[in-house]
Specification:
Layout: H1 3-15, H2 32-47, E1 59-60, H3 63-73, E2 87-93, E3 102-108, E4 116-120, H4 122-129, E5 158-164, E6 167-174, E7 181-187, E8 194-212, H5 215-221, E9 232-233, H6 235-243, E10 250-256, E11 265-272, E12 283-289, H7 300-307, H8 319-322, E13 325-329, E14 332-339, E15 342-347, E16 354-370
Antiparallel strand pairs: 1-2, 2-3, 3-4, 5-6, 6-7, 7-8, 8-16, 9-10, 10-11, 11-12, 13-14, 14-15, 15-16
C-alpha cells in the first residue's frame, strides 16, 4: 500500500469514530421488566416467522474500507480478541437516539466456522492501539464472564441489529440459512452487548403447505413417518460406493420402483458428512444399483439421482431425521427431502425430478435463561 493510500485509509477510519457522549450524560439503563418483555417479543416474532422483518439491513464494505481495516488489523492481529477479525459488513444507525448516526461493524472471526459479531466502529482502533499483546476484553458486559450459559452461545452465529419495543437489540443466531435459529438476545443501549436472555429451540416445528400439486399427499407429508419406506443398512454397499469414487460414510438400501417403469429398482441411500465449516451433517445421495447390489448402474435414473443431492432436513431432533427419505403414498414412490427449492415431496418418475409439495417449516423457540440487567 502506498503512503498516500495509507494516509487516506487512516483518515477514513478516523471519520468512523462515533461521537462521544458528554461526561455529564446519564448512562442509559433498562429495567428487568422491560428486558423480559424484549426477550418475549423476540421469541414471539421468531415463532411467528416474522423476526427477519425486524432486522436492520447491513451493507457490504467497499474495497477501500476492506483495505483500510486490513491495514489496521493485520500487523496487530495478536491484540484482537478471538471473536474479532476484520469486518465485512456495516450498519449506520442511531442506536442511542442522540441524534448522531453510529457505525456498527460486523467483525468476522478467523477460522472455518465463522462468527459475525456486531461492534462499534472505534473498537478495532482501540485494540490496534493497545500496548498489550493480548487485549482480550470480553464480548459481553453485565454478566459474569465465566457464566457457562454464555459459553460458545454465538458459535457459528451472526449478530443482527433490531429495534424491539423501542430499544436497540442484538439478536445472535443465523437467519440467513435454511435452518434458522437464535441463541441470544442482548441489549445494545450502551454500545456494548449486554445479554438479556439465552434462547433455545423447543423441537416443535410449525408447518404450512406452500406449493401443492396433490392436496392429500401434501397434508400427509406434514407427518411423513407413517409413509417412510424402510431401508436396511449395508456396509458392503457403502464400501462399494466409496470404491467407485462416491463420497459415502454409510449406506442403506431398499427395493422400490422409483421411476415407475414397472421394474423394481435397487435404491441405495448414501450419507456423507463433510465436517467442513461448522459441520454439515446428513448430505444424502440416492443411487440405482444392479439387481445383485454389487455396482452402481449407468442409466437415466442414475443420472437423475446423482444430479440431485439432498441437504439435511433443517429441523430434526435425531440424526436419522436429518436424512432425505424414500416414502410411499397410495402405492406411488416419492422422495421427502430438502432441495434448493425447499423442503418438500419430490418424484423421479420417468427419470425426471418433479416437486409435488413445498412444506414451510418455522422452528419454535423459548427463553432458556433470563439475565436481569445490572448496572454499576
Amino acid at each position: 500500500m502506498t503512503l498516500q493510500r495509507f494516509i487516506a485509509c487512516t483518515a477514513y477510519l478516523a471519520l468512523l469514530a462515533p461521537i462521544a457522549l458528554s461526561a455529564s450524560a446519564e448512562e442509559p439503563k433498562l429495567s428487568p421488566e422491560k428486558a423480559e418483555h424484549i426477550c418475549s417479543s423476540v421469541v414471539a416474532l421468531a415463532n411467528a416467522g416474522r423476526l427477519q422483518q425486524s432486522i436492520k439491513t447491513t451493507t457490504r464494505l467497499s474495497q477501500d474500507e476492506l483495505e483500510a481495516w486490513s491495514a489496521l488489523y493485520t500487523p496487530n492481529r495478536s491484540k484482537f480478541p478471538m471473536w474479532m477479525g476484520t469486518p465485512d459488513e456495516k450498519l449506520v444507525v442511531d442506536f442511542d437516539h442522540d441524534g448522531q448516526p453510529d457505525t456498527l461493524y460486523r467483525f468476522v472471526s478467523i477460522g472455518t466456522c465463522r462468527i459475525g459479531t456486531l461492534a462499534k466502529a472505534d473498537d478495532g482502533r482501540k485494540y490496534a492501539e493497545s500496548r498489550s499483546s493480548s487485549f482480550n476484553e470480553p464480548l459481553y458486559v453485565g454478566v459474569a464472564a465465566e457464566d457457562d450459559e454464555l459459553h460458545m452461545v454465538n458459535w457459528s452465529g451472526i449478530d443482527y441489529f433490531a429495534e424491539i419495543e423501542g430499544e436497540p437489540v442484538v439478536v445472535t443466531g443465523n437467519l440467513r440459512s435454511e435452518r434458522q435459529w437464535i441463541s441470544l438476545v442482548s441489549w445494545f443501549g450502551t454500545g456494548r452487548q449486554q445479554p438479556l436472555c439465552t434462547v433455545e429451540p423447543t423441537h416443535l416445528i410449525k408447518q404450512a403447505i406452500g406449493l401443492s400439486r396433490d392436496a392429500d399427499l401434501c397434508r400427509a407429508a406434514t407427518h411423513p413417518k407413517s409413509l417412510i419406506v424402510r431401508m436396511e443398512s449395508s456396509d458392503g454397499v457403502g464400501a462399494m460406493l466409496r470404491q467407485a469414487g462416491h463420497r459415502t460414510d454409510a449406506a442403506s438400501i431398499a427395493s422400490v420402483d422409483l421411476n415407475r417403469d414397472g421394474k423394481l429398482d435397487q435404491i441405495a441411500r448414501g450419507e456423507y458428512n463433510s465436517g467442513a465449516g461448522c459441520g454439515r451433517d446428513g448430505i444424502t445421495t440416492f443411487y440405482a444399483l444392479s439387481d445383485d447390489r454389487t455396482r452402481a448402474l449407468d442409466t437415466d435414473l442414475q443420472k437423475t439421482l446423482i444430479q440431485n443431492k439432498w441437504r439435511p432436513l433443517p429441523y430434526a431432533a435425531k440424526y436419522e431425521d436429518l436424512l432425505a427419505k424414500l416414502i410411499r403414498f397410495r402405492g406411488k414412490p416419492y422422495i421427502f427431502g430438502a432441495a434448493p427449492t425447499g423442503v418438500g415431496i419430490y418424484s423421479v418418475w420417468g427419470n425426471q425430478k418433479k416437486q409435488w409439495c413445498e412444506i414451510r417449516q418455522t422452528p419454535q423457540f423459548r427463553v432458556r435463561k433470563f439475565f436481569p440487567p445490572k448496572f454499576d
